[in-house]
Description:
CATH superfamily of the domain at 9-76 and 101-177 and 273-346: FAD/NAD(P)-binding domain
Structural class: alpha/beta
Radius of gyration: 21 Å
CATH architecture of the domain at 9-76 and 101-177 and 273-346: 3-Layer(bba) Sandwich
Low-confidence stretches: 390-394
Strand content: 15-25%
Number of helices: 13
CATH topology of the domain at 9-76 and 101-177 and 273-346: FAD/NAD(P)-binding domain
Shape: globular
Mean pLDDT: 91
Amino acid sequence: xxxxxxPARAAVIGGGIxxxxxxxxxxxxxxxxxxxxxxxxxxPAGAALSLAPNALRALDVLGIGDEIRGLxxxxxxxxxxxxxxxxxxxxxxxxxxxRFGGPLVLLPRxxxxxxxxxxxxxxxVRTAVTATLVDPGDSARPARVSTGxxxxxxxxxxxxxxxxxxxxxxxxxxxxxxxxxxxxxxxMLIPVPGVEFASHETWGRGRIxxxxxxxxxxxxxYAAAMTPAGERAPDDEKAELLRxxxxxxxxxxxxxxxxxxxxxxxxxxxxxxEPLPALHSGRVALLGDAAHAMPPTLGQGGNQAVxxxxxxxxxxxxxxxYTAARLPRTTAIARRAVRTARLNMAGNRxxxxxxxxxxxxxxxxxxxxxxxxxxxxxxxxxxxxxxDAHIGER
Length: 394
């Protein structure tokens, strides 16, 4: 145990949203925190992030939940459409907020990263650092992390290094790791002048598209399609989007036309199909994609990383309690995301016809029936409030 004369030390490997949230939560509770990020800056990969009420409540613990709600780029109604433009269902932001106690908001990832980083003391974030777990430690000794030319000792190491986590591989070398989910995604955050539309997601056969207007005038658009792993466009990814979605309903063609080839990000989707045996070992804890990468079909990947971070700070002195609190929940949500992917990425014509008919019928019966899919997810509450600064045993 560290002397009481100094704060306990935490090394966070990975400066993404989960890692920064964990660092901010630990710092708030009295830990000395160092964030080790491999990239040269904290500028995040990806375009935008959807924050559900569960993640916003977690951010309330850091004192920034209301601020992030106020910065939200989009809050509004939307719905689900067919490629021809027919509305299968209409969603109500008011009904969702009433059911789950808060809104679903969309904002650029950069906005949240910058706000989280601002909660940390100067010098806490070190970029362009390749961190390697040397020793996970135990109750009698600290963990050790190599940063190339030196080593750090810490009472807690947080593995927040993403889906290809080297920390996870070091802790659980027998685990098979992530597997290909069967589909690839495209994302872009661009201005689309002169085009007005309602936020929507569109489900086709083995393909989906989403378009969401942002408050600053830009549009966040994403697409997904069943493809072989590693496949890429023979020319560029904008051209690939035109081939796959250019004949879909408005405003899809206009959004694609407004993009430059370099605006389009493409990534194959991988997930952790076999849950880890635990989310910790020794003095090391995993969170976010390093712990439970899931398909993006519920929009919960980043939200669960934020939840992890807040719960980890609460149980930082008792990592088995962290695993007990998080592993069952994240496993269940990841499995639900896989089931949702099978539904919205269905390619069989008959299955798609039945799917669309059922969704339309549920929508006519009432929006609450569709919102039930997020029961047990969006209504999550953090284990402690913003004013609880108890540090606990380490």
